[in-house]
Every structure is written in structure tokens, then in C-alpha cells.
Amino acid sequence: DAMDMVTMTILDSTMVAICREMGITLMKTSYSTIFNEGLDFTCAFADAAGEMISVADFCPAQIGGMPVLIKSCVRELATEPLEEGDVVVHNDPYRGGLHTPEHTFFKPIFVGGELMGYAVSIGHVSEIGGSVPGSFASEATEIFHEGLRVPPVKIKRRGIDQDDVWKLLLANVRTPRENYGDYRALISAVDLGERRLTEVIGKYGKPVFRQACADLLDYSEARMRAELALFPNGHFSFEDVMEDDGIEDRPYKIAVTTHIQDGEVIVDFTGSDRQAKGA
Predict the structure, then answer these.
(1) Residue 54 in 3-state DSSP?
(2) Cα–Cα distance between 155 and 183 in angstroms, integer?
(3) Which of the four, 48, 77, 138, 161, has the lowest number of CB atoms within 10 Å?
(4) Is 79 exposed, middle or buried, given 0-12, 13-18 or 19+ CB atoms closer than 10 A?
């Protein structure tokens, strides 16, 4: 079927505006300057399958990991299905997360008992324990030096704080008061997102919302493929070196070959050195 571009654009703009409102709420209620001045956070929506459907223009570095974050979390929590009022937190890079300081909070959005999507906030929490204050250990050689790793856990269950999770999070950091305020701000963002998107779905109806989400994904894919089609077919290679890793005084080669074939792109790092100790 042909896309209803008007409805899709209205819902797209509405969801982006809500994501921005989520970010402003986070900024205004957080305790740390990394949020309220540095704006090192991102707020977004995902559909029921975990695909990102809208995002606000705060910190772009966090946007790319969003779909993987949600899908990996939902998969790990499959034995305990998400319920209305749940809020999940995690920061584990080995579970699809970004780097360890960046905590993801997401909340399922149910309308009439049916899962319609997720409200998501990602924020760089400036202190998560580890070997140095601020949790940027330049001499770290393993993830355990960086600070507390949090697998996907429910910090709120059916709208109720899980006190044991809060205690674990705050007992392992040097700035528990600031972290508490920042976690609350991240939760307030997804709470707001849930309320606003529920109102939007109530106004337009579930079928229109689902179709608009599907159209947005198709439209964004078509635009990306159109851009890739402008690149000529072929193999394009480049090499460079990282002079040292902060631990060992020796260069590390980074080699990359980009394969382009009729709008499809594969990036191959074969030929690069093995992971450095300090990477």
C-alpha cells in the first residue's frame, strides 16, 4: 500500500517533539552538570519490536546503539515478561550497551493491555565506581576497572521502586546523591514519554500508529539506500596506526576495507591488529 505521508509526517514530528520534551525534563530535573549543562543524554521511542522510530537531537553518539540495546534487554528478560509500570536499567557493553558510564532506562508502553512500544532514555552517568573517580580509568585493561556493570534489571516493577536494586546501584559509587538524582531524572523522562505516547495512540488509534511506524522504517530505509546508491561499486581500503594504547608503547594497525555493491555496504576490518590491552 502507498504510504500516507501526511499522517506519517504528523506522527513523526509529534514523537520527535515528545522526545525533546523528555530531554528537557531530564535536563531540568537532573543533579549533575553532565546532564543539565553538557546534555550528554538521548531520549527516544522504539516500536514493539525494539526498532527506534523517533529520537531527539541531543547526544548523537548514543543513537546508533538504541535498537540493539532494547532488543538485547527484552531477549534477556524473556523469562519474566515486561508489565505495565516496569522500568528497566542496564549499562553493560557486553549486552548491547554503549560504554559503561552510559545507562539506558526503558519503559514499555501498554495501551489497553497491548505492548505498543518503549520509551527510552540514555545518559552518561559521571561516576559509576571503578578504580578512579569519574570512572574514566586511563590505565584500565579490563572492564572490571571501569565500574559497576548492570545487566538488564527492573529498577521499578509495576510502578514500584525495587529497593534492593537501588541499594546496589548507590552503594558502589562515590557520589550516591548525584547518581540518585540523575537516575530519577532518567526515569522521569521515560515516564513522561509513556504518558505522551499513550495520549497520541489514543487520539489516532492503534492501527494508524502501527502503520505510521512501519512507514517510517520503510521510508528511512529507502532514503538511506538512495544515498548508498550514489556511491560507485568497488572495494575501498585504508590503513592507519594508533601510536599507543596508553599501556604499551607500540603502534597498533587499524585496517579497513569497505565493499560497496549495488547499494549494499560491508565494512571489513581484517588485517587490523588484535585488541590492545588499553583499548
Answers:
(1) strand
(2) 10
(3) 138
(4) exposed
d(CA 147, CA 127): 8
Q: Give helix then strand counts, H and E, for the chain.
A: 6, 10
User: How far apart are alpha carbons 184 and 172 in whole angstroms?
Assistant: 17
Q: Which residues pair with residue 154 across a beta bridge?
A: 88
The pLDDT tens digits of the residues spanning 214-252 come to 999 999 999 999 999 999 999 999 999 999 988 888 999
Q: What's the whole-number mean pLDDT along residues 110-119? A: 96
Q: Specify the pTM.
A: 0.92
The amino acid sitting at 144 is F
Contact indicator for 260, 232 with CB cutoff of 8 Å:
yes
Tell me the C-alpha to C-alpha distance, in Å, between residue 220 and each of 52, 80, 206.
11, 33, 21
Distance CA 69, CA 189 (A): 17
Count of residues in the chain: 279
As a three-state string, the secondary structure of 237-252 is EEEEEECCCCCCCCCE
Our CA angle for 52, 53, 58, nearest 5°, is 75
**Burial readout 192-207 (b: 16 or more C-beta within 10 A, e: otherwise):** bbbebbbebbeebeee
Q: In Å, how far from its chain's centre is CA 83?
A: 20
Beta-bridge partners for 242: 252
Tell me the C-alpha distance between 265 and 112, whole Å.
41
C-alpha–C-alpha distance, residues 33 and 239, integer Å? 38
